[in-house]
Each structure stands twice: as C-alpha cells, then as structure tokens.
Amino acid sequence: MQGRILKAIAGFYYVYVVGSGIYACKARGIFRNENRKPLVGDVVEIEVTHEADMEGNVTVIHPRSSELTRPPVANIDQVIILFAMRTPDPNFLLLDRFLIEAQRQKVSCLIAFNKIDEADPAEIDRIRETYRGCGSPLYFLSVRTGEGVEALKEALKGKTTALAGPSGAGKSSFTNAVQEDVTMEVGDISKKLARGKNTTRHSQLIMAGPDTWLCDTPGFTALDTAELEKEDLENYYPEFAPYLGKCYFQGCAHIAEPGCRVKEALKDGGISAGRYEHYRYLYEERREEEKRKYK
Which residue of 42, 147, 204, 223 pairs with 7 in a disulfide if CB–CB is 3.0 to 4.6 A? Predict the structure, then answer.
C-alpha cells in the first residue's frame, strides 16, 4: 500500500493511507544499510504486518521533490512565515532570518501577519512598503475575525506547506481555522497522532483539505546562520539583484564603499531602509563571528 508519513517518533513512522487510516510502521533495515532514513512528508510503500493493530513496515521511499535539512521533512512545496501584528509585536530581523533560511533550503515563502484587527492601517502600509521587493507575497489576516483567512487558505490548496514563526503568532489558531471545513478523517488522524495544544516538538503533517497539508515545523524556530558567509548575504536580498556587480569596487560589501549601486538605490528609494539595515546588521554579525572563529 502507498501512503505518506505524517509523523516520526521513537522509531515509528505514522503512515496515512487514503481510505484506510494510519499505520504505525517501522523502517526496514535496508534503509540503514543504504544510509537512508524516512522523513515526515515522504511518500512510501508499506507492507502490513498486523491489520488489526494497523502496524506495518516501510518498504519503499519514493523519490522526493524537495528535502529540508532543518527541520528534516520531505516534499514541502512552500513555507508560511507567520507573525503577529501585536502580542508579540513582529520581529522583522527574525523575519529576515526566516527568509534567508528558507532561501538557503530552496523553498518558496509566503509571509503572513496575523491580528490585523489590533494594528494601525498605517503600520500595515509600512510593512508592505518595506517588503515590496523581498520576493515573497504578503498576506494580512485576523484568525479571530476571519478577515483575510480565505485568501491565505486559497494559497494552500493542493500543496504541502510548512508553517513557521514565533510563539504567540497564532500558528495553532490558523491551523485550526483551515481545518474547520475539512471532514475527511481529521478527527481520527488527530487522535491517532495525539495532536493536542502543547508546543510541537516533532515535525508533523496535518490535513487541511484534499491533497492539502500543513507541516508544523519546530526546527524552523531555531535559526542559525553560522554556515552563511558574509559575502553571500547579498544574494539573499532579492531587491539587491538589479544592482549587484555594478558597484565601483569589485566585491563591494555595500557597507561603506564609495560608488556602491546598492547604497545609491537605497538613497533613491529603490531599496527599503528597513531591509538594508537588517542586511547591514547581519553582515556585521557574520564579520564578528568570523573574527572569533579565526582568533
């Protein structure tokens, strides 16, 4: 039978098979011999070893369309980076770190801000202006009132979406909202996986509609840019792209050099000041880290 791994914990892989339910499976030894490991999100073949207890073995792992290394999940189409407008206030430097990490793992992003009913419209306009060139679409919503929720739900259809963001942003509330109209086995799946209101410690796929899944990803909250070279940072700011390679000095860091096209674009309004300041902060952070590393 073919299914999809929804959760992996303590050596068991919980595989959802359409029309049959969830089987608790072990991985065959051949995967260890090949230095391969099933991941949440994998499409797999299983053999049933005990039908009454719905137990089995994973026998085949189908080719993956994508693979994230942190958190370790497979076949993710996109990630929603969800922040709140209030309580907690959005941390835009953290948002930029999320965007960089997602780009490094080669997954497209949607940026969403919850609790817009508590925000000043002028503040929303400022965010739109700041992130207009970041390469990711922005969504503004209130899970509490329902405003804007449908637009984001529409962007999920037919895809597997990782959900990332800080505690308190409303990830659980959004997940519950997108499940409201889903009738196919959601209750049984949640019960089988023991999904409650506690903080997620393991990546897990949650059904949100036909061929539509949300992946709660605790690993995305622990960001570390230690492997990122400061010289590569410019490539993770899409709004810099039209100006790269056109500065007076080859290898321009876009910090203090004369004849910098990026800084000229900043002055002319082609690049937002907020995004540039985050770039500068992260560049200096990486430079200090490199100094400590080579002392």
Answer: 204
Q: For 66, what's the count of Cα atoms within 13 Å in the CB-facing half-sphere?
A: 20
Number of CB atoms found within 10 A of residue 19's CB = 7
H or E stretch covering 33: helix 29-33
Mean pLDDT by 10 residues, the chain (295 residues): 94 94 91 87 96 95 88 90 94 93 89 97 96 96 96 95 89 87 52 48 84 78 66 96 96 96 96 97 92 77
**Strand ranges (E), the chain:** 2-9, 12-17, 21-27, 43-50, 55-61, 67-69, 72-74, 78-84, 108-114, 138-140, 160-164, 204-209, 212-216
Q: What is the pTM of this model?
A: 0.86
List the chain domain ranges: 2-63, 68-221, 230-293
- What tokens were used for 193? 């996986």
Q: Which CATH number fits domain 68-221: 3.40.50.1820, 3.40.50.300, 3.60.15.10, 3.40.710.10?
A: 3.40.50.300
3-state secondary structure of 103: helix
> Would you say the C-alpha torsion 184, 71, 67, 236 has a positive or negative sign?
positive
Closest CA to 201 of 70, 9, 37: 9
Q: How far apart are CA 77 and CA 105, in angstroms?
A: 12
Report whether 78 contacts 109 (CB < 8 A).
yes
